[in-house]
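Q: I have 137 residues here and want to know how they pack in 3D. Can you give me a structure?
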Amino acid sequence: MTDADSSPTSPKTSRRLALAAILVLTLGVATIGFLALRKDGTQVRYEVETGSGRTMMVVYTTADDIGLGTYRSDVPGETVSTPWSTTVTFAQPTSLISVSTDAAESSDIATCRIFVDGEKVAETNGIGGTNCEARIP
């Protein structure tokens, strides 16, 4: 190798730097594309419905430190309209998720469903209320 081949402005050094820059740029674009396409966590969708279209409240597993979310009417003594649904993203693995509801009337049929990443993993019906449980794979 001559001194001309190793100088900062030599053709070989320029080509190597250009190839290294192209490689870094390509890897950077590929990484950004991968991150944009990959799924961020597990999406869990909870659904509740009742024959009367009303429920007293819905309790479901959340992804925060508390672990349970409760959805009820903002007006004391009022009911929650059904069908009702919410989606929670679990960034960390969790073993058991659940949703439960008490129907507004004791003779009302309640249905709950849990979907994990779009696939239904649990569905239960009950008179006066119901509870669904599932495990996130």
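Q: Anything worth noting?
A: The longest strand covers residues 42-50. The chain has two helices and nine strands.
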